[in-house]
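Course exercise 7: structure representation. Students receive a sequence record and must write out the corresponding structure in token form. The form below is the worked example handed out in class, using LysR family transcriptional regulator (302 residues). Read each field label carefully; the graders check that inputs and outputs are placed in the correct fields and that the protein name is recorded exactly as given.

STUDENT ID: A-19
EXERCISE PROTEIN: LysR family transcriptional regulator
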Amino acid sequence: MTLRHFRILQTVAETGSFTKAADRLYITQSAVSHAIREMEEEAGTELFDRLPRKVRLTPCGQLLLEEVTPILASCDTLEAHMGRLEYQAPLRIVSSITIASFWLPEALRSFHSEWPDTEVYVDVAPAAGAMNLLQKGKVDLALTEGTLPQGAYVCEIFASYSMKILCAPGYRKKPGPADVKELSQEKLLLREKGSAVRDTFDSALYLNGYAAYPRWTSVNSQALMEAAKAGLGITVLPEPLVEKEIRKGELIELEVPDLKLENELIAVRHRSKYVTMPMRGLLKSVRSCKGRTAKGQEIPQI
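STUDENT ANSWER:
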């Protein structure tokens, strides 16, 4: 038996007539009779009493109708929702820590104002972990930073930020700028390998012929900031994260003229993955969001 059989059974029961059921369902009376006969053969019993002017469910027919009615109701509900499935399906994104801190909240607030029925689930992870989740198909969109990922991806740069080389006031005895060699020999307080900040810093040193051998390695930028404030070494962190500490004089910037440290922020998705209307809306919100520093100033967009 199929849903078509169940719908014919329900309609005949409601109208009390094979002819009226056929008219309501826009099929022939013979099609209705044939479907009822098929169900009766499968059930091994009569489902309708054929009276002179109408048909009426038998007790067995009533039992079957009670079983199929919830199924048909669910189908009706599904049919009503079919046109809105795309809007109700959740979006899953992964974001780097910096983007989640300074860009994502504004983007999601804007998105939800236009797409209130679409839930968004967010994982916050280092840049390398973000791309791993996208690669495995566990998320629809990765908001990451640093170098453009290789592979069958659509990548869109939507903003950028500078990274600051920082230490506590009085930490360095030698005033003025430092060169790359001096910096590489310092007590460095750095993010872990695989983070966008660390990868960018390591690449900049490598291009100048040097490498980093940090005294501290941490997944927590706040811990590195506090260590630098305590005079334990030099750290490299995103400008939006340390703007307040610089303004208050708790950290000072060390100039290294030969190092240009900047990360681009990238929205990444699979090239072959269908882009729903809500996803288009989310990408639009990401493009238009303006990151904020601790002081509330806008971070430059690309």
